[in-house]
Design a protein that fits this description.
A hairpin with a 5-residue loop joins strand 1 and strand 2. The protein has a domain of 47 residues. The strands form 2 sheets. A 3-stranded antiparallel beta sheet has the order 2-1-3, with no helix packed on it. It has 2 helices and 5 strands. By secondary structure, the chain is mainly α.
């Protein structure tokens, strides 16, 4: 609402009512004018009534204040746009990181499962190795025992064979000694009887006629 007095361009801040019922609106500057007229007419018609328009209505801003407010609004809008842009970038980064986290989580679960499988495989191989070492040790003992028995048998057989050969050698040596003794006796007899010298053949010594 605009001031209704003297073609004033300012916005009205008060309304007033004359005692005879006429009313109007005026700015802060024309309040004094209306009050002066009311004092002049008080004795004839009574007192004029004032009422403030929009008590909580803020005061009109000056041009500098409006420019400053407009500038601040532009700055705020620019900051808002930057914030929205940055928020979009952060949202994209957050989405990418969330996807990477999910990927790494899936990969981690896969690696965890593979690790458990490998550990189970290592345990199984360890048990197999221990069983193989135990079996190898037992087989080694069995092989060594069999070898010892074979060696003992071979040694016994070889010893018996050598002993038999020694006995044969002793028997041959005794036979040769007996033949030598027989030849010596025959030679002694020949010398004592003046007979032809005996010869020693396969069947022993004998005299050639």
């Amino acid at each position: 609402m605009q001031c209704t007095l003297d073609s004033c361009p300012k916005p009205a801040e008060y309304t007033f009512v004359w005692p005879w019922g006429a009313d109007g609106a005026c700015c802060q500057g024309h309040v004094v004018v209306v009050q002066q007229k009311a004092r002049a007419l008080r004795g004839h018609f009574g007192q004029v009534s004032f009422a403030r328009l929009n008590p909580d209505r803020p005061k009109e801003l000056s041009r500098d204040e409006r420019v400053e407010l407009h500038t601040a609004r532009l700055v705020a809008e620019s900051e808002r746009d930057d914030a929205r842009k940055r928020s979009g970038e952060l949202f994209e980064v957050n989405t990418r990181l969330a996807n990477e986290v999910r990927t790494h989580k899936v990969r981690s679960e896969q690696l965890h499962g593979q690790t458990l499988e490998l550990l189970q495989r290592v345990d199984a191989l360890t048990r197999e190795r221990d069983e193989a070492l135990t079996l190898a040790g037992k087989r080694r003992e069995d092989v060594e025992h069999d070898l010892m028995q074979q060696v003992e048998v071979l040694v016994s057989e070889r010893t018996s064979e050598l002993e038999g050969r020694l006995r044969l050698c002793d028997d041959g040596r005794l036979a040769a000694l007996r033949e030598v003794e027989a030849a010596n006796r025959a030679l002694a007899d020949y010398r004592s009887r003046d007979t032809p010298a005996p010869t020693v053949g396969p069947d022993g010594p004998h005299v050639v006629e």
